[in-house]
Amino acid sequence: MGVDSLGYMALKVSKLDAWRELLERVFGMEPRERDGVVDYRIDSYHHRLTLTADTTDSVEAIGWEVSTSEKLAALVSTLQAHGVAVTAEGADLRAQRKVKELFSFTCPMIGNRQEIYYGPLVSNTPFAPSRGISGYKTGNLGLGHVVYWVKDLAASVKFYQDIMGFAISDYIAWDDNDAVFMHCNSRHHTLALMKDGPNSPAGELMHLMVEAQSYDDVGYGYDLVRDMGIPVMIEPGKHSNDHMQSFYLQTPSGFWLEYGYGGREIGPDWEIRNYDAPMLWGHRFVGG
Predict the structure, then answer these.
(1) Is the pLDDT at 288 greater than 60, yes or no?
(2) In this structure, are residues 191 and 160 in contact, taking their beta carbons and an 8 Å threshold?
(3) Distance (Å, whole) CA 115 – CA 61
(4) What's residue 52's pLDDT?
(5) Radius of gyration of the chain from Cα atoms?
């Protein structure tokens, strides 16, 4: 029992226009506007990302999807049994998130607001990208993956295993970095946790990854990012563990966004391994 996918992310942003240019021109996401808020669609779901104009930048919430009402109730009970306060959200927020049932809590490990839900709204019209792209690899795999820094790596891994229903995919330890990659469906990892450090404070989002259906989408996106002067943080390359071919850019809010293609999926014969480097080739830090 546990979550089934990363369903959505809600962000508060101080540079809404810059975010809109990034998501629409580079990533081809479809905007849906409502009273100073923009929802972004990338597949059949009503939306996967929400941007709210604000004076500061923060992750308002990560939304974890649970496939049935019964599983959602069981997860709520498990969280409460482990001393986590869970709030049943009302009709207004359910209407904004476009879901049937919605609960929220503060993650005791990361310290961020998390939402767990059931029954996402699916649109009856096709996704209409704002630039010519082939679309995104989502469905049962969810929005993509997120990577967070944490203070206590071992305790955080245990929380997401024992309570949230994740399983370990593999590990990477390199230089001063220590990362654990975790899955809740066949996507190689929906969550990765990294030990914090001097320049990587616990509780901060390191990056969000979205996966394209075509490597050409990523390549064209890279050219657009360079032409638009958007900061590239890690050059194109291929990861050692999930084989994702991707590059990383810095968003207007400071955290990174990974644009990838071709990630491996977890199967019944998957073997957990421990890697000594995050890349097979490329993925060089810009200026590093």
Answers:
(1) no
(2) yes
(3) 7
(4) 98
(5) 18
Can you name the residues that pair with 267 across neighbouring β-strands?
Answer: none
Distances (CA, A) of 105 to 35, 76, 92, 149: 26, 10, 17, 19
* Amino acid identity for residue 33 in this structure: E
Q: For Cα atoms 260, 266, 272, give the angle at the middle one, nearest 5 degrees.
A: 105
Q: Do domains 5-120 and 139-282 have the same CATH topology?
A: yes
Q: Which fold has domain 139-282?
A: 2,3-Dihydroxybiphenyl 1,2-Dioxygenase; domain 1 (3.10.180)
Q: Which of 144, 147, 167 is nearest to 157 (CA)?
A: 167
H/E segment holding residue 237: strand 232-239
- Mean pLDDT, residues 41-57 taken together: 98
> What residues pair up with 132 in beta bridges, in sequence order?
none
Q: What is the pLDDT of residues 105-135, one digit of tens each?
A: 999 999 999 999 999 999 999 999 999 999 9
Assigned CATH for 5-120: 3.10.180.10
Residue of 88, 67, 92, 62 whose CA lies nearest to 76:
88
CB-neighbour burial class of residue 273 (10 A; exposed 0-12, middle 13-18, buried 19+): exposed
Select from 234, 250, 244 the least CA-distant residue to 280.
244
Question: What are the residue boundaries of the structural domains of the chain, listed by start?
Answer: 5-120, 139-282
Residues 6+ apart with CB under 8 A from 182: 157, 160, 161, 166, 167, 168, 169, 189, 190, 191, 192, 193
Structure tokens at 241: 């563990």
List Cα–Cα distances, 169 to 175, 180, 262, in angstroms.
Answer: 21, 8, 17
